[in-house]
Design a protein that fits this description.
With 276 residues, the chain is α/β, with parallel strands linked by helices. It has helices spanning 2-25, 32-38, 57-60, 65-80, 99-111, 129-132, 141-145, 175-179, 182-194, 210-214, 232-242, and strands spanning 43-48, 86-92, 117-121, 156-157, 163-166, 197-201, 220-226, 249-256, 258-259, 264-265.
Amino acid sequence: MINLLAGLFLGLAIPFLIVVLKEFFDETVRCKEDIEKRTPIPVTGNIRHSPFPGKMPVFEHPGSALAESFRELRIYLDAYTDEQPMAAGIHSMSPREGRTFVALNLACIIAMNYKKVVLVDANLRKPALHRWLDLKNDRGLSSFLEGSDSIDQIMFAAGTAGMYLIPAGPVPGNPAELLGTKAFAELVKELKQRFDFVIIDNAPADVVTEGAIVCRHTDIDLFVVRQGHSRKNSLDALTQRIAWQTKNRAIVFNDIRENSSKGLFQREHSEEGYFS
């Protein structure tokens, strides 16, 4: 009997200890409270995990809980200021946090609200939006900034009615210098005259400096943090080195899976192909 009790105790205690230690040493962001403990930047968007295979599920499944979470983010941007048009920068500290996914679906949900929106791929080093929308990338932002193309030559209808894309264009050798030119500032100014919203998808902020350059021309900057992937120490870097360069900033908590029986967030991995 003693051996049976000891075996039962160890059988329960060892797995419990493993789980506790795993939680203790887990340095990834698991819940909204992890963000609030690390940074004073407000969390204004809570994007649910996408159970759908497509890259633009808010368009394909407009009645889903995922689409509703993007509507809440859109409403926040609408309420942020009465002045439109607005230029919003979408950033992440590292790759695979869902920055491009958020930028694309936010642009789509805005267009579905009968607004004109243009999505700009400013990730000149590793562009992705043209592939996601099945468009060519032989001309785009880089060719415009180099003086080869006009605005109308680099703008393409995409996604849904009222939504347009400016792809990154051919990868240049000097992306930071191009984004720092007067031509980029003039481009954003012109786009704000043509559209209600300008959504700019940027390169990871902890890898390269281009995002900080783009921030000079945006009205608000949204930093994407992905549940179970983003590391807590990246929030320290966000607060200390990146976000102070922005005029107005907020955090979008992305890829949230919720355990409805306990009301707690759980870490689970998604299809990584839809996150960049």
